[in-house]
Write a structure and sequence with these properties.
Elements: H1 3-14, H2 24-37, E1 60-64, H3 66-71, E2 89-92, H4 105-119, E3 122-127, H5 133-147, E4 155-162, H6 179-186, H7 190-204, E5 212-217, E6 228-229, E7 232-233, H8 234-245, E8 249-254, H9 274-280, H10 288-304, E9 311-316, H11 339-351, E10 364-368, E11 373-375, E12 378-380, H12 416-443
Helix pairs in contact: 1-2, 2-12
Length: 444
């Protein structure tokens, strides 16, 4: 099949020309068939709830959780869950971890590289900065090995360090993090020094045109223009990075209304939070994420002197059920972590017209994340899919039954006959559906 014909098939599956032509199950089957025909490597969760709107799809991506990467890298969604729209970018937090099985590393890297190539996806690759330089160097070595499996054109950026502005907050709960280490990273200059070394190595590897960044939390916006204290000299760092790397440097921040301690329970209640939800779980007007984006853009311009500096939202998302790490007043409000609010936040994110923000709009945003996972050893439920073995999307009707079981979506790339089987089935299904719609139209 010609690529143009194949894209027509995909377009037909997403938006059939006649009302009622395709049931949810039939759409899923046709999309999977088309995926196999064009050599797509990936996974699609099953559901009976679909959203037709994905604004600015080229500026939105999925954050790839550790669970998916280390345990089921062959099952990365190639379409956004609950939509028919292809995923075009992924944020990868690390190339690998010392705590993960060494035997699975090459497999995971191979699956990721195949997914990126087959689906024309770009990746934001992360590498860690911690209190252990030895572990950081090992992580960086893995990052370079992974980068060598893809081309520079497939890498949208490299993030060196994640949320270091709140590293000091973890001193009390993580024995590997000390006050001396945190001060050394910032005041001692080791973070800035390491950042430059990493970028220099990227240049020698042929990634000299790839943007570089470090991702801070929304808390970094709490200064003039950003926080600048001995344990988080964010303003100082951003000024130095912006001056040295210019347009290549991306300003990146994570925004999580879900964890914001400024949201309080409704007055006079002990378990209600409707007032907080009106500005937290939405993406229009004065809702928190768009407001934070606008605030960040203004502060970025103060640092760089450029109204068009590269600006990414590294993460945003919502948890349901309640995240174990939620320790604000919202932990007492059942509605805050309800399925309904989770669904609304994701639906509104998809519908968010980023460009409507005008000059303050970010250049790219990532939704966190693909599957439920652990963060710093704590279970969180931000995933759009529950587990590696889940055939269904998390957002679905209560009594929904998937049109296929879990084995139906196993790794196609490990079975040479798989794509050929789907080729035949895809042609049959596509022909039958087109014939059905023609008959329906003629009868009308």
């Amino acid at each position: 099949l010609a690529q143009a014909d194949l894209e027509k098939g995909l377009s037909f599956a997403r938006r059939p020309p006649c009302s009622g032509c395709l049931t949810g199950a039939m759409r899923s089957l046709l999309l999977l068939a088309c995926a196999a025909i064009r050599g797509t490597v990936g996974y699609q969760c099953a559901t009976d709830i679909y959203y037709n709107s994905l604004h600015a799809s080229g500026k939105k991506g999925l954050a790839l959780d550790d669970t998916t990467f280390r345990s089921c890298s062959s099952r990365i969604p190639w379409v956004w869950p609950n939509t028919w729209e292809p995923v075009t970018s992924l944020r990868l937090f690390k190339a690998w971890s010392s705590e993960w099985s060494p035997a699975a590393r090459e497999i995971a890297w191979g699956n990721l590289a195949a997914f990126v190539s087959a689906n024309n996806v770009k990746i934001l690759v992360g590498t860690q900065i911690t209190c252990s330089s030895a572990e950081d160097d090992k992580d960086w070595d893995w990052t370079k090995q992974l980068l060598n499996l893809v081309s520079p054109s497939q890498v949208m950026g490299v993030a060196i360090g994640n949320e270091l502005d709140i590293l000091a907050d973890k001193v009390a709960v993580d024995d590997t993090i000390t006050d001396t280490c945190v001060t050394g990273l910032w005041q001692g200059g080791s973070f800035w020094s390491t950042f430059q070394q990493r970028v220099d190595e990227l240049d020698t590897m042929g990634f000299g045109d790839v943007p570089v960044t470090t991702v801070f939390t929304g808390a970094a916006l709490g200064g003039t223009p950003f926080i600048d204290v001995p344990t988080a000299s964010v303003s100082t760092f951003l000024k130095a990075a912006s001056q040295k790397y210019g347009k290549r440097f991306a300003f990146s921040f994570n925004f999580y209304p879900y964890f914001d301690p400024n949201f309080k329970l409704d007055s006079g209640t002990t378990d209600q939070c409707m007032q907080a939800l009106t500005s937290a779980a939405c993406f229009t007007g004065s809702c928190q994420v768009p407001a934070s984006v606008s605030l960040a853009r203004g502060k970025i311009q103060q640092v760089s002197g450029n109204a068009n500096s590269l600006f990414w939202v590294g993460e945003t998302g919502w948890s349901s059920p309640k995240a174990h790490s939620l320790d604000t007043q919202m932990q007492w409000c059942p509605e805050w972590s309800s399925t309904d609010v989770f669904e609304k936040y994701y639906r509104d994110f998809l519908d968010w017209d980023i460009d409507a923000g005008g000059a303050s709009a970010p250049d790219h945003v990532f939704y966190f994340d693909v599957r439920d996972s652990f963060q710093y050893g704590v279970a969180e439920k931000f995933g759009l899919i529950e587990t590696c073995m889940s055939a269904k999307c998390k957002i679905r009707s209560a009594n929904y039954t998937a049109p296929y079981n879990d084995m139906f979506t196993q790794e196609a790339q490990s079975m040479p006959w798989y794509n050929w089987a789907w080729l035949g089935l895809g042609c049959v299904v596509l022909a039958a559906l087109l014939l059905t719609c023609v008959v329906v139209r003629v009868r009308k």
